[in-house]
Amino acid sequence: MLPNPSFLLLKLPLVVLRRICANWAPIDLLVLSNVSKRTMMRLHSVIPRKRFKMEVSFWINSRAFVLDGTEEHVIDIPYGQKNRVNWEDENHESNFIFEDISIRNIIWMFEQMSYVFNTDIHRIAMSADQCFGNVSRILCWLNHRQRSIEDLRIDFNTLEDIANIISLCQTLNIKRILDIANFSESHTGKRLNPKFEMDNLWLRANNLDQWITLDNIMDFDCIHIDLTSFAFTSSDMNRYLKAWVNGCNFRMEYLYLGLRPLDHKILTDGVEVDEVNASIVRSYNSKILIGPTKIEGGTDICSKDGRRATFQQIINNDYLYPEQRFPFKMVVWPKDGQ
């Protein structure tokens, strides 16, 4: 027997160690990194910066999704909740709220994984209700740990103030998607004047016009804008169409607003439009949307720089009560398209 049978992994040449690590799955690297701080630092140094992409979730089943090329690895995150989850309770998900110590443990684990895998966090998804009291903490942590993030999705919010969430999201450099599903009331009276520049923006709430104006929307630099709901009038939207003709929302391809029924005559007053026969059906296709957006007929409009768009509001006369909103959709067609 050899006097020292141990395999001195960390003393291997850098090139050799890098090739060995290239054949290990993320969970293997993560387990090995726990041997010592020196091991963790060594692994970090040999993993290429662009090898992994990491997506994380702050849900009752907290997980990290680590992408290694085309292969996805799912790693469950233990978080040490003191008040144990009663998995037999059929309402366990709706009643669950993370404790502060659990959020701290999850963040610590995500930090370790990000360091070992030598990558930023590319996507965060969270249940705002399950993270109640810690949503701001998570967003502040994200803002301080990295310069940007590709996707941020916040779902099932009935407890947190949406104005506070949006105010914090403005401090983040979100590249691709901001998606917030909110059903709570906002207690913030002042306008937030958000300036959004991500590719795709979804904000679903019943009180958006408390803190976001039509002028704010005109200033957004987004490809897809999907917002509900507002009290904009026909005159307001007429002003929007005139602003679009003159160059606002230059990157926009798709706009969805939840609005009360609009008066088409007021909406198009002073705007050069073409009414399209309802028998003509056109489709807008995008990977980011679920299925194609079909427009039957609609109203065509052209901008001064040559962009052509179609807008339409479908009103269901069976549901004409005061607070009902109906979708106002506008599609900007590619120059070689419709």
Instruction: Going across the biggest sheet, name each strand in turn.
Output: 3-2-1-4-5-6-7-8-9-15-14-13-10
Largest sheet: 13 strands, mixed
Label the structural class.
alpha/beta
Percentage beta strand: 25-35%
Helix content: 25-40%
Provide a short characterization of the protein structure.
By secondary structure, the protein is α/β, with parallel strands linked by helices. The protein has helices spanning 14-21, 26-33, 37-46, 92-95, 100-116, 135-145, 162-169, 214-218, 234-245, 264-267, and strands at 52-58, 63-68, 71-76, 121-127, 149-157, 174-182, 200-204, 224-228, 254-259, 273-275, 281-284, 293-296, 299-302, 308-313, 326-333. Among the domains are: 9-46; 48-212, no CATH class.
Question: How would you characterize the overall build of this protein?
Answer:
The protein is α/β, with parallel strands linked by helices and 338 residues long. Among the domains are: 38 residues; 165 residues, no CATH class. The chain is 26% helix and 26% strand. It has ten helices and 15 strands. The protein is elongated. The mean pLDDT is 90.
